[in-house]
Batch of 3 targets.
Target 1
Amino acid sequence: MKQPIIIDTDPGIDDAAAISIALNHPQFDLKMITTVNGNVGIEKTTANALKLKKFFNSNVPVHRGASQPLMANIVDASEVHGESGMAGYEFEEVNETELSSTHAVEAMRDALLQSDEPITLIPIGPLTNIALLLKTYPEVTAHIKEIVLMGGSANRGNITPAAEFNMYCDPEAAQIVFDSGLPLTMVGLDVARSSTLLHEHVDELKDLNQTGDMLHQMFKHYRGDDFEKGINVYDAYTLLFLLHPEHFKVEEAHVQIEVQGELTKGMTVTDFDSEFPNTSVVMSIDPERFKDLFFDALRHAK
């Protein structure tokens, strides 16, 4: 039986890898893709989601969401992902007629309330849309199976020494999500850094299939953490964890978001000794196992 999911995203090169799996793997029933300001601005993240939809000839609707954080100033990661957000591959052009008109938050509410079974939310960008959903329509919580998010770190950050990018972009939204009482899984920097995709493995992607070739070209333009030795495909870990949780090391913790610290804004303060954990924190996976799971998942794409 397929698992119903919603992807909330800010594509983003590593987002493209996650979306490629979500759109094509037979174990997922992707209800929609919702976009958020993050790696680049909302117009570009939405265009990139539409480009991926077109690349895969998909009928999954794309809904545009929040154009700015709840309170924080806008930051982006165009120096990592390129000016367009998905540098390195020439996608077909898209236009707004291919975009579903309903705002992302309303679209998620409708899908959740109308679903016959709870849906898993997979936010792989800043948590603005998810926070707005939970605060505006609290009745949806009974229809959310769990939230498996990419973001945070139990150790050092990547945009600052303390903070991971998605949490830093909208810490107030992140705090709302971590205080929601919903089942949360934090797939952050720790697991990605435990299993960097080596450059030799990135080169193998080009011969996998059309999708592998597309990702290979973009990965060659991706300037993220640990670029000297390989690529950290952060967002893809959320889907791989849902497919194969038994291969990941997970620890329970109480996680709170620093929203006021001048030097620690966006930090995920992770207490593994708490008697009241609110989050499952994905810590690591064997690098060879990750590579095999990643390639196997992408083989379902064209």
Note: DSSP finds twelve helices and eleven strands in the chain.
Target 2
Amino acid sequence: MTRYTVTSEIFTENENLSEDRNSNTISSFVFKYPSYMIKQNNPNGIVINRDKDDDIDIDRQQEGKLLIEHRTSTELQHVGLQVWRGALLLADYILSNPDLFRDKIVLELGAGVGLTSIVASFLAKEVICTDINVKGILKLIRRNIERNKSYIKSKICTNELDFLNLDWPTFTKQNLHQATVILAADVIYDETITTGFVQTLAKLLNSETPKVVYIALEKRFVFTTADMETVAPMFEDFLRRIEREQLNWDVEYVKIDFPRYFNYNRVKHMILMKIRNKLTEQCN
């Protein structure tokens, strides 16, 4: 059987690829600091530039740099080892809307290499970073957390969570249900995984703790001879499954015109969705 590999577009868009580590790559993901992160005596060592009158030079945006270990190409079932545009779109949204994430307990599903969770940790009270533990992905996330610890301001932990296994241990269930913000980037790419993802969200949203979900993805279009048109099958399958399961969710599409802090091509087919459970909203 032929094995096909896929490569994230970030590989061609990021010019800061560096060393190899056991077939992985460590890349520098440079980002601009939002104005609220630029302050005197910042523990990250941000240098404050001043003009000739000793005033802060607000025109010059300071930059940070995350060092992220990842793969540049994988087989389809291991794409979580790569960095995709959706993770960077979600990271931009977090940095653009600090009040939505500050002092919150944040849960990321399908966290991959952990980039979005690390960005969430700039603001959150606690970040729970989860993924299925294959190909050493949880250890990779922990390495990325360690190499970027100077930026991390919150408690951050990693846990295994498999969309295809909803039989969670009691401690894990209690931990997950504490979260009030759920993040997911580029997890809708496979029919079976999409089904499991919807079921996982349904279980998490069936909680006494009100939650809001942010899902970032890039619609992948293909031409089908059956329909004689170009469609985005996985995204459309995701929407159909929500309807089929009769999930009482409020789905909102967030405009993606917020500032771009990371360097990537924010293509027009990128989507950011905000989901709430309507029943939960009505009880609060």
Note: The CA atoms of residues 90 and 258 lie 11 Å apart.
Target 3
Amino acid sequence: MNANPLTDADLDRLEQLLEDDVFQEDSMRLDEIQAILCAIVSGPEPVLPSVWLPDVLGKGMENASHPVVAECMELLMRLNNDIAAALLADETVAPVLYPLDENGEEYDYAAWADSYVYGAGLAGDWFELAGKHAEDLSELLEPMFMLNGMLKEDVEKSGERWFAPAEEARLVADIEENLPVIIQTLYNFWRNKRSGGTVRHEEPKSGRNDPCPCGSGRKFKQCCGSPEKLN
């Protein structure tokens, strides 16, 4: 159990500190920081604070002894511990999200997913470290690539047909709703790898570009292997 968990007041204070002039508008937002820490905590190799703090606080790290920076660092370490404790206990982490409009009808899931992918890279090449389970990891990460637009970009660059707008919107909405589960699943993937476990499949695995075994005529990755099935 985390001995000193952050309160809502602590999180509000952290948001306030990140906007202080000492950071010269170079610090990350709280949503981006949370996403990076979720990836770091989940990953295959430890990432020291000396690696991720400069990315998170930017120019503020030039004044690490400044009271605001020091307080911010202390809160960030506690946030890191909170996330680690929650994922270890199989408690889903609720993503911090900022609205994209004044009405709060849409939220910036893309920034969260993009930051998670960035955080994953701080521990090295996840796919290389996944070894024989790299394809399984790729599937688990596809929802993140769906949210940040990378999956669509790659598909369109390859000349393949992308989802119709209504279908894309449905898939994205499903991923957004299930993002806490996706985060936990990625953590569990690496936890299982560290403990020497294996990734289990109840049925023979289909390749991403193989015809879907359901008989739809579509590629597996665009049917039963599509992003909404990967969490």
Note: The chain has one domain: 8-195.
